[in-house]
Every structure is written in C-alpha cells, then in structure tokens.
Amino acid sequence: MHGLSSEIEDFQYYTWRITGWRGLEKKITSPEFEAGGWKWRILLFPFGNNNPENVSIYLEFANLKGAPAGWHSCVQFALLLWNPEDQTSYVSHHANHRFTAEESDWGFARFYDLRKLFAPSKKRTRPLIENDACNITAFVRILKKT
Question: What is the C-alpha to C-alpha distance for residues 112 and 83, in angstroms, rounded to an integer?
Fold first, then answer.
C-alpha cells in the first residue's frame, strides 16, 4: 500500500441519506458513485455483520464484472455516520486498502455500538440517528499507481 505521500489520482465524496433505520433489512447497499473512473458503493449492516451489537459499514468496489484481469486500486477512505440535523454529531473511521477482485470491500465490522446510536453521548448533545434517519458519507481518495 502506498504511503501518505503518494500522488492523488482522484478524490470524491458521496453522501447517502438513510431513513426508516429501525425497519431496514440486515444488509443494504447505497446507490453507486464514481471515483477514479470506477463505480463504488457503501455497504451497511445496520444491525451488525456477524456482530449484532455493532453497526457495520464498508466501502465496496462495484465494477467487478467490468474490471480488467489483475485490476487493483489503492484507496484511502473515510466513512462517516452523522446526524443530518446536527453535523457535529458524527462518528468516523478511516483506512487504507488495496482493493482487488478478490478483496473488493473493506471497512469496519465494529463501526459503532448499536445501542449508542439513538441517544446523545458525553461529547454530543444529539443522537447520531434522529427521527429514524442519518447520513453516511464516504470520502474516497484514489492513489496513482507507481
């Protein structure tokens, strides 16, 4: 994986508005968005992915069928879950990952404690999910291959 000094090929962000949280299915997928000439999406497991106490969120490469043999993309990304009514109420995680056809998603199985989503915390006066809605934003930085 490239270091932080690598040259940036593209930088995009995408915000996905989620409503009706309590009625969501076990796994939902955002609409596709483009970064680095490829399609990406956010995977959300609102009630955990093999861990029912945590929300799980991943970034997924969505062009598997269109990618050439040996394709890979070095990506620095951040995922934020935030309250659209109060942008200071958010939680975020970031990672570097070399996406390939064999490893086409990467993210956080323990993104945040499910029980804490609906209540204010020590640092926040409002919950992350209010009126059964929140936003998830993916910031995606594609690094040039060297």
Answer: 14
Contact 35, 142 (CB under 8 A): yes
- Count helices and strands in the chain by DSSP H and E runs: 0, 9
Q: Where are the beta strands (DSSP E) in 19-133?
A: 28-29, 33-35, 38-45, 54-61, 72-83, 86-100, 105-113
pLDDT tens by residue, 66-93: 889 899 999 999 999 999 999 999 999 9
Alpha helices in the chain (DSSP H): none
pLDDT in the model for residue 4? 54
The one-letter code for the residue type at 109 is A
Pair 38, 61: CB distance under 8 Å:
yes
pLDDT at 129 exceeding the cut of 60: yes
- Domains of the chain (ranges, CATH numbers): 12-143 (2.60.210.10)
- Of 57, 27, 73, nearest to 137 by C-alpha is 57
Q: How many Å separate Cα 99 from the centre of its chain?
A: 14
Mean pLDDT score of the chain, rounded to an integer? 92
